[in-house]
Amino acid sequence: MAEPEFNATGVRIDRSLRSLTRAGQVRIQDGRLELLTSYGREIDSAPVGSVHASKPWFASRDRARATVNGHRYVLTLGAAAYGPPGGRAGDGTSPDNTGEAAVNRFLEVVRSAHGSTEKH
User: Fold this and answer.
1) What integer pLDDT is reported at residue 81 of this predicted model?
2) pLDDT tier, 80 (very low <50, low <70, confident <90, very high otherwise)
3) Contact call for residues 11 and 25 (beta carbons, < 8 A)
4) Is residue 86 left, alpha or beta, with left meaning phi > 0 and alpha meaning psi from -120 to 50?
5) Is pTM, for the whole model, over 0.70?
């Protein structure tokens, strides 16, 4: 199995006004985005090319919005441990291991899957 392109743990995943998990996982691997609970149970998944992701303008910098299979999720990557390609999630080697950096990396991976450089 290949290394994930993006992997963040400790992610709060909300849908509408309901919190689905406070310590979930967002993983992009083999062209699929997966939202998982803290126990590893799948919340939702889809090919990355069909996922729409953006930063909400009204929220804090550690949040991203993702539309997966028509469902809108708010991902709070706060102090989430994430790993760049070739690294391990949470290895602490990145000096900018913040929620904002994790959100930017997540959006970058989703955009590259779409093959575009435009902002969503």
Assistant:
1) 62
2) low
3) yes
4) left
5) yes
| C-alpha distance across the termini of the chain, in Å | 30
Q: What is the CA radius of gyration of the chain?
A: 13
- Phi and psi torsions of 25, nearest 5°: -140, 140
- Supply angle C-alpha 49, 51, 52, rounded to 5: 120
In the three-class reduction of DSSP (H, G, I as helix; E, B as strand; rest coil), residue 9 is classed as strand
Contact indicator for 6, 51 with CB cutoff of 8 Å: no
Examine the pLDDT at 119 and tell me if it is beyond 70: no
pLDDT in tens, 18-30: 999 999 999 999 9
Residue 103: φ, ψ to 5°: -60, -45
Q: What is the pLDDT of residue 82?
A: 60
Domains of the chain with bracketed CATH:
6-114 (2.30.29.30)
Q: Which two tokens stand for residue 38?
A: 């803290």
